[in-house]
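Researcher: Structure prediction, please.
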Amino acid sequence: MDYKQEIEQLRQAIEENSRLYYDLDAPVISDYEYDAMMRRLRELEAEHPELVTPDSPTQHVGGHVMSTFAPVTHEVPLESLNDVFSFDEVREFAARMEEQVVAPLRFSVEPKIDGLSMALTYENGVFVRGATRGNGVVGEDVTENLRTVRNLPKQLKNAPAHLVVRGEVYMSKDVFRELNVQREINGEPLFANPRNAAAGSMRQQDPKVAAERKLDIVLFNIQAASQTYETHGETLDAMGDMGFNVVPYQVYGSIEECLQQIEYLGNHREELPYDMDGAVVKLDSLAQRRDLGSTAKAPRWAVAYKYPPEKKESRVVDIVVQVGRTGVLTPKAVIEPVRLAGTTVTNATLHNQDFVDKLDIRIGDTVVVQKAGEIIPEVLSVNPALRPEGTVPFHLPETCPECGSPIVRDEDGVAMRCTGLECPAQLLRNIAHFASREAMDIDGLGIALCQSLIEAGLVKSPAELYYLEPQSVAALDRMGKKSAENLMRSIENSKTQGLARVLCGFGIRQVGSKASKTLASYFESMDQLMAATEEELTAVPDIGPVTAGFIRQWLDQPQSQHQIRLLREAGVSMDSAETIVDHRFQGMTFVLTGTLERYTRDEAAAIIEGFGGKASGSVSKKTTYVLAGENAGSKLTKANDLGIPVLTEVEFDAMIQ
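Model: Predicted structure follows.
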């Protein structure tokens, strides 16, 4: 490949990964890999300056302004930093500073926080606006979301009349872990790292969602002020006095002292509440900064040292299997202790069976380990030359190591899953799902209370909810007699929800609320469903052979039968709760679109099903009617194209009288 081709390929790869990182908060490569590509592009463009173009990634800050937020032109551009990857390059930076500015030189060193960069504007000490970095010149107005950031001061002390500061919104490591636990239980995709979680939260249209994410902010620069300062350190101290949470920093008179601090930060990064992806070295004098100025993209008076991902060899002493909250089995290598990114690592994820097979990882192997994104240790490779004799390939078990239930492989992925309803590893997720709105709809029984019930040893399976004692519930933290009575009432009321909701609560693979309703309508009782063969299940509308196999396998498990028996003995209805008023909609399929005034979509769907009809989510030639409310979209267009009758709410009301 010649240099022109390499430049073009690098530009395309960097732009695509910038879009994934800045705009979609969904990176697919590490920061270090991205920085290495950018570094190579800069080298090539320096060698061939005639090929530098204004739209090159080296000439602008990554990211774009999203159309969902109002644009904000920054009073002072929010520049990026030039990256360096070795101590020698930091020394070269210092040498340039000595050549270009008048001594004495002093440098500040601070951690580079891995979050979402923001510009905050204050007038007379009052917070009035906040914007993302965007492309560095124009950002997005996220003022209302920023008001939900926990430690962002809305009113400053001793602030200049006009002030613009720059900071980094971040999600703490502890909050990140809690959020991913919640998302895992809810069956939502997990965030890759705290930075992505913070960025996704800050771009929420509803500030309430941003508030739930428990974000924080740390400030690191004064962009503009109606007050003068002499040094960077002075500005940081002033921001601290105003009430901001300010980045920790140290100022040194020699670059060697800076290097010692960089090394110190790297060794102690785990002690910080936030992720850091480097250390920033800046000239401390603001006058010297003004003399040096900036390039098209970055200031000349600062560099960001990027810590290389540490890779070290260790030996696999065992491979253990963990069962996650959703039942997914994950192999984990137990390794001889090794120091990585400031912590002692004794375990490394092996992801899944396909990953183990690809690298052929075995107990006794010598492996190369690194921290992925400096968060999760992972095995990168195996050194087969050091493999001892007698090792054997590793395979995940066919039954769950926690409860002994059969393991199934996801039909569309690599995950291997436990199918046990009483599996202790899945207890929190199973109980929370069973109590959820689409299942048994037990009002007041959220994740936190489920966790409290489990920790107190009051429930060990979903069915045991119906055997709780009011006094035991009242003794839990933050409950009391009244709250316990309300919960017990909700649990009692849920007993009459009927077969469809019970089936949905079981969490059988590929059996959600829609399939549960279909099964309940077809079999009408749990006894009939349990007696059905796989062939009879396949004959049910919308139940294919794969789903039928999952249902039959689940019903045949002793744990499942035990749960059904406990529910039956507790008085939970195992019959279809659907009351067919009459069969006027028998054989008809309705599609709902737009906003209805008199009903929610669920209420309208329940009415249709109560008259023997079916509510579908998509329009096809088999659709009988489309019920359209305000702002109906593409479904209405498709119905008109296919000549399918469209009902107004008035016409629908007439049909159900």
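Model: The CA atoms of residues 36 and 85 lie 9 Å apart.
Researcher: Thanks, that helps.
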